[in-house]
Amino acid sequence: MLLKKNVIRWLVLLGALLSMPALAVLKIDITEGMEGAVPIAVVPFVWRGAKMPANADVSAIVASDLARSGHFAPLPARDLIARPTSPDNIDFATWRIAGVDHLVIGSVRLLADQQLQVQFRLFDVLKAEQSLGYSFNIKASHLRSVAHRISDYIVEHLTGLSPAFDSRISYVTTQQQVQPAAKPGGKPATRTVYKLQVADTDGFNPQTLLASPEPIMSPDWSPDGRQLVYVSFEAGQPQVFVHDIFTGARQKITDFKGLNSAPKWSPDGQYIAVTLSKDGNPDIYILRLADKTLRRLTRHWSIDTEASWMPDSRSLVFTSSRSGKPQIYKIGIAPGSRPSRLTFDGNYNANAAVSPDGKSIAFVHGEGNAFRIATMQLEDRAMQVLTDGPLDESPEYAPNGSMIIYAARLKRRAVLAAVSADGRHKQTLALEEGEVREPAWAPVQ
What we know:
By secondary structure, the chain is mostly beta strands. It is built from four helices and 31 strands.
């Protein structure tokens, strides 16, 4: 009984939630740059016939994305030696002397149908030639999205990494709200409101999908980026819901006695893995969405939870206490499959996320009272600790595998943080007021 109580505490603590105001924007600070980042200059785009909307400075967004990637060191706008607006007035020799390897210029022009035409060009300064260029006709409301897309094109062209910026992240927040006194002269009450929110990868355009006086936990994206699956305690016990982020429609998919936790969508979209204790101890089950059939995948006296799918949707990794302490195991979903242990270094390894290419996992590695994000290469089991702790959790890979977003503590506040997959580049995503946790990165569409 004591073990089961500790397990429930462990599962709940893994999903502890914190908060932020509904329209607050995550502020990103690069806390550790990558040595050898490529110098690049992004010249402010020229606006023709249109006024730049607030928070939609395309060149500033691109420069910020490139800096956040860790692969580039954009020149601050105040340090630009020139502001060319066309290829004809670029003095490549001067830019070479300034130590700039690549140069980005662009424009935004108002079209007759009230659409905007956004153009950009990427130049190789050393070769003195254009290496990339695109033009987009868009609605004004899509400016930030196209700016992120430009960043993706540049990063992909120069590094080979697939897109990641023109995507979204989800997270859970809490907010303390003061309620009026129940009667004259009484003391005001305070209640906690939990919110499930989604935003652009740079924290802008936050939207609240669900607000509840009860905890919301473990959001995870569908492969098409249209839906989120998550745990809600709004009925007084954990239930798993699927939520369409465009229509707001919700569907309850598990509501069994005991734990309904840690849902995870398979990459092929056919299954959701979930932890249930309806038959005794917490075990991993898979729900086939086509017919809502449920199949038990693990069967052990220990705690099995926190499933994460391999890219082929034929196997998954999960956390289990079957060795006495939380460790990470892998199991196929075919009937009769048996789990194999992956982690052996240390007494606490849990909450694994699988890289998009399936070659590595990121997880929480505990040493003493410190919990840090680590990675392990599945081929040779080489492990690397990436973060400093002390209470890091909930790692999630970016769609291109270059970054890992996770929940952390900063000066006693809960924030989101990100670290490059090699540990060389770090950043924090914090709120001016409130706290935030439970990150999940949507696939790029």
